[in-house]
Amino acid sequence: MVYRAKGRVRDMEFVQFHPTSLYNPAIENPSFLISEAVRGYGAVLRTKDGKEFMHRYDERLSLAPRDIVARAIDNEMKIRGDEFVYLDCRHLEKTGFQEHFPTIYDKCIRVGIDPMKDLIPVVPACHYMCGGVMTDLQGRASIDRLYACGECTSTGLHGANRLASNSLLEAMVFAHRIAEDLLPRIDTFELREDVPDWNAEGTTDPREMVLITQSAKELKEIMSSYVGIVRSNVRLKRAMDRLYLLYKETEDLYHQTTISPQLCELRNLITIAYLVTRSAAMRKESRGLHFTTDYPDKMEHVEETYM
Ligand SMILES: Cc1cc2nc3c(=O)[nH]c(=O)nc-3n(C[C@H](O)[C@H](O)[C@H](O)COP(=O)(O)OP(=O)(O)OC[C@H]3O[C@@H](n4cnc5c(N)ncnc54)[C@H](O)[C@@H]3O)c2cc1C
Predict the structure, then answer these.
(1) How close is the Cα of 118 to the center of ligand 1, in Å?
(2) pLDDT at 20
(3) Rounded-to-integer distance, Cα 131 and Cα 281, Å
(4) Backbone phi, then psi, for 95, in 5-degree steps?
(5) Of the ranges 13-17, 28-32, 133-137, 172-176, which one carries the lowest mean pLDDT score?
(6) Which residue from 108, 144, 217, 255 lies 20 to 30 Å from 239 (Cα-Cα)?
(7) How far apart are the C-alpha atoms of 285 and 13, rounded to whole Å?
(8) Ligand 1 in reach of 150 Cβ (< 6 A)
């Protein structure tokens, strides 16, 4: 919404992936996360044939930072054509595991996996967006009187790669700052109350919901395949071309049919996908959560990607 209203958004290419969500072919949305504390507790990552692989990527092995582990898993899956890797907890002590991770243990048992006897299939999942509505340190966006805080923002706090657990703190700190900034000013604002009702004249009821649901599925596939953990110029270009088609089709639908929450959501998702892809294409280096095979190194100075 802010982008459409010509407000500034920044750093949209920095999308954090959680390395280990439970692989569930039944498609669970949102995915169930196997906390990174499980690896901290001693669980080990293995490929489908049972071999450890993290030593080829980082000396910290399974305890390497999130982005490194997610990239390593993604690489192993791509090389081998596998849909997941395994997290091995079989050597861990059962009572301790149950005490530390009761929810994870219960969830695994419910889907037929006994973590003490079976390997847990895991796959990286899209987890957090570091970029967003650009704000200053008081939470003010570039549009006058618009404040923003939380995951939708880019306050600068997370840089190119968020440290775990920082986002809730950020949301609280900025909510507080916004309140402090706003309270002395709010009475001076003139608020408009003459916002017109939505005008649906000339639109028809959507007869085919499949046009929306199918486009949402396509969007997800495009982003997963081409703008995921590892990027390249060719992949980003392909994503942009496909996104443009979806954008055109959805804009037509938006102007011709009565709106629905599903249609509005799809339209917003396409805008976000476009911003992520375009920001990724603008960054000619690899930094933090953005990794591209065409520019694997960091540039010396940091460029902002804002629109
Ligand atoms: C599985 C998981 C585990 C996490 N664990 C941690 C953690 O341990 N520590 C940590 O700091 N962070 C964690 N995070 C990240 C953290 O949860 C989020 O960054 C944080 O909750 C974002 O809060 P928010 O209020 O900005 O956004 P949200 O919680 O996403 O709230 C946005 C709200 O806006 C509503 N909304 C959306 N569009 C519209 C619209 N058009 N009109 C009206 N309402 C709308 C949504 O329904 C939602 O209620 C985790 C995230 C995930 C996914």
Answers:
(1) 32
(2) 96
(3) 15
(4) -60, -45
(5) 28-32
(6) 255
(7) 12
(8) yes
Q: Is residue 100 included in any domain, yes or no?
A: yes
β-pair partners for 153: 133
* Residues 219 and 273 both lie in one domain: yes
Together in a domain, 245 and 170? no
What pLDDT, in 10s, does the model give residues 79-90? 898 999 999 999
- Whole domain around residue 100: which residue ranges? 15-128
Q: Is 168 in the pocket of ligand 1 (CB under 6 A)?
A: yes
Whether residue 144 contacts residue 7, with contact meaning beta carbons closer than 8 Å, is answered with: no
Q: Is residue 57 part of a domain?
A: yes
Q: Tell me the pLDDT tens digit for each residue of 245-290.
A: 999 999 999 999 998 999 999 999 999 999 999 999 999 999 999 9
Please tell me the distance between residue 262's alpha carbon and the centre of ligand 1 in angstroms. 19
Closest CA to 140 of 93, 101, 109, 180: 180
CA dihedral 11, 304, 288, 221 (to 10 degrees): 40
Residue 10 maps to a domain: no
Residue 130 and residue 154: Cα distance in Å, rounded? Answer: 6
Residue 171: pLDDT above 70? yes
How does residue 305 score in pLDDT terms, banded at 50, 70 and 90?
Answer: confident
Same domain, 134 and 119: no
Count how many domains the chain has: 3
287: left (phi over 0), alpha (psi -120 to 50) or beta: beta
How many other β-carbons are positioned within 10 Å of the β-carbon of residue 3?
17
Closest listed residue to residue 22, CA positions, set 125, 117, 129, 112: 125
